[in-house]
Specification:
14 helices; about 325 residues; mainly alpha; single chain
């Protein structure tokens, strides 16, 4: 077995996009938890403690966080293997193999000669691990109805390019990524931890979703010619080269503006010193700007690598920014 080929098949450069919303959702949950604690401390004698606050103990938060990180990684890997399998048996990757070998882009498993059956088996193993992690989280939190959300996530991962009418072949990939890697992943994390969501969580979810959309757009823009020839109608193929490029810039610009809007009125207080939290946006804006510059220069492989890192950088900045509000 070619270990390097299988590692590349997991598409490690895309994995930060799955971990990012878990980190941000956890930080948003801790902010809400602190607010609930303050409310309880100020009026606990008259009002019983919120049950979600009682359940959100540090030990439970840590356990759920670790499980959700593992769940997110295994689900992303399962989706990547499923995409590889479906594109492979559909013939979408037939014309990519030689070009990928020349460009240095990691080859798809089926296109590199791995038996589709083995790729499907790997998909099922990763999906099984995802289910185990999800059930463990539900057992700890008691939110069993979230199993419906989990089923939707697994179905979305499979039917992205699988089945007779894959929605990824009809320009809906970006919308799906925004929903599942943004709203569902971030708000789902917050809900699992404290049993509720808030505006900060929604804004953070939008940022995570937009950054993941940018990553997918860069990937699809890179494959625009081969996708057009193979009949894969991604958003980039449908709108054309110019509109696809502009869309990438807009996605990252909106992401920065949302971050700016969330932190511009917040101040971190350290003793008697108040520091504007808007400085947290500077590294986010700088990194996303670098992605756009590399893309504009035509260095698409580098822009794609930076985009994967950018999802994590943005998430870390949001996480740090929110946690500093607790000081």
């Amino acid at each position: 077995m070619d270990t390097k080929l299988w590692i590349n098949g997991m598409r490690p450069k895309t994995l930060p996009a799955s971990v990012a919303p878990v980190c941000v959702g956890t930080a948003a949950a801790l902010v809400v938890r602190a607010r609930l604690q303050d409310q309880c401390n100020s009026g606990c004698s008259a009002t019983p403690p919120d049950p979600n606050l009682v359940q959100a103990t540090p030990g439970r938060i840590i356990a759920v966080f670790i499980l959700l990180v593992l769940l997110a990684l295994s689900m992303q890997i399962a989706a990547n293997f499923a995409n590889d399998y479906s594109d492979g048996i559909r013939g979408t990757d037939e014309k990519r193999g030689e070009a990928e070998a020349v460009s240095g882009k990691p080859q798809r498993l089926v296109a590199a000669g791995v038996a589709p059956r083995k790729v499907l088996q790997a998909t099922m193993v990763a999906a099984g691990l995802t289910c185990i992690m999800g059930l463990a989280v539900m057992a700890i939190t008691g939110h069993w109805w979230m199993i419906l959300v989990g089923i939707c996530c697994l179905a979305a991962g499979w039917f992205y390019v699988g089945g007779q009418h894959p929605y990824g072949y009809h320009g809906l990939g970006e919308l799906s990524v925004f929903i599942f890697f943004g709203l569902v992943a971030t708000l789902g994390t917050e809900y699992f931890l404290i049993g509720s969501v808030d505006l900060t969580g929604v804004l953070a979810a939008c940022v995570c979703g937009l950054n993941s959309v940018g990553l997918l757009m860069l990937n699809n823009y890179r494959d625009i010619d081969s996708d057009r020839k193979s009949g894969k109608h991604t958003y980039a193929v449908l709108v054309g080269d110019k509109a696809a490029r502009i869309s990438i810039y807009l996605v990252y610009a909106i992401s920065v503006l949302i971050s700016l809007g969330r932190f511009v009125t917040v101040f971190w207080t350290f003793g008697s010193v108040a520091i504007p939290a808007v400085i947290i946006v500077i590294p986010i804006a700088a990194f996303l700007l670098l992605i756009c510059i590399r893309f504009a220069q035509g260095n698409q492989p580098k822009a794609f690598v930076l985009a994967g890192q950018g999802t994590l950088i943005s998430a870390l900045c949001w996480t740090i920014g929110l946690l500093l509000e607790l000081v």
